[in-house]
Amino acid sequence: MKKLLTVTLSALLALSLLSGCGSSNTESTTLKVGASITPHAEILEQCKPILEEQGIELEIVEYTDYVQPNTAVEEGDLDANYFQHVNYLNWFNEDYGTHLVSACTVHYEPFGIYGGKISSLDELKDGDEIIVPNDGSNETRALLLLQQEGIITLKDGITAASNATVQDIDSYNVDVTIREMEAAQLTLSLQDVALAVINGNYALQGGLNAATDALAIEDAEGDAAQEYANVLAVKEGNEDDPAIQALVEALHSDTVRDYINNTYSGAVVPLF
What we know:
This protein has about 270 residues and is an alpha/beta fold. It contains 12 helices and 13 strands. It has a 6-stranded mixed β-sheet with strand order 2-1-3-12-4-13, with helices on both faces. The protein has a 5-stranded mixed β-sheet with strand order 9-6-10-5-11. Strands 7-8 form a two-stranded antiparallel sheet.
C-alpha cells in the first residue's frame, strides 16, 4: 500500500510539472508603453501584430504631456515610453534625477515655425509675438530655429545640447516678444500670435505638417536629425530585456518604415 501511494504521488507530481510547463508556453508577456498620441502611439500600433506572433501583448498608454510618461517609467508603472528625443531625455534625467536611457532611435520630426496672424516670415514686424515651448531642450531647439531664420541672435556657445531660454538671446533682429509656453498649448494659441515654433508631434495633433505647412523648418543638412532623434526610452538596466528587444526589432521593421513614409509625408522621418 505504501509503495502504491508513493507511485501515485510521483505520477501526480509529474503531471503537475507537465501541466505547468504547458501553461508557461501559452502565457503571453504584456509590455506597457507610454506614448504621445501622434505619431508615436500610431507607430506603436503597427508593432502589435509583429509582437503578438512572439507572445507579447503591447499595451499603449497615451499621454498629452512630456513629464508623466518619464516619471511612470522611472517608477515602474510603464516598461518603456516613446515620445521624446534624446536631448530632452538627457535634460529630463538631469533636471528630475531620473535614470532613463535610450533602447533605440526610431525617427526624427522636423521642428517648424508656423504662421498664426501672419503667413510669411517677411511679414514679421516689431511688436509681434512669437511663442515657443518652455521645456529646456525644446526651447533651445526653437531658439536655434529662430536664429537660423535671422529673427534673433543667441549668445556664443549655445548649441543643441544647451538648455537655453529667452535669457540667452543676445540680440533681436526684429523687435518681437518671445513667450514661453507649455508645448501642448502651442497649436491652441497659434491664432493669437504672429508665429509659433512647434514640436513635430503637437503640430501633427493640431493638423499641421512641418513639410507642407511650416514657414521654416530645421536645416536638413544640419545635425538636427541626430541631435533630436526620437527614442524608445526605458529605465537604466532594462535595455536588454527580451520583450524590449522584441519591440526594438518591431520598431525597426520594414512594416514600420513603410507606415511612417506613407502616412506622414515628410513630417516624420525614419532613422533606420
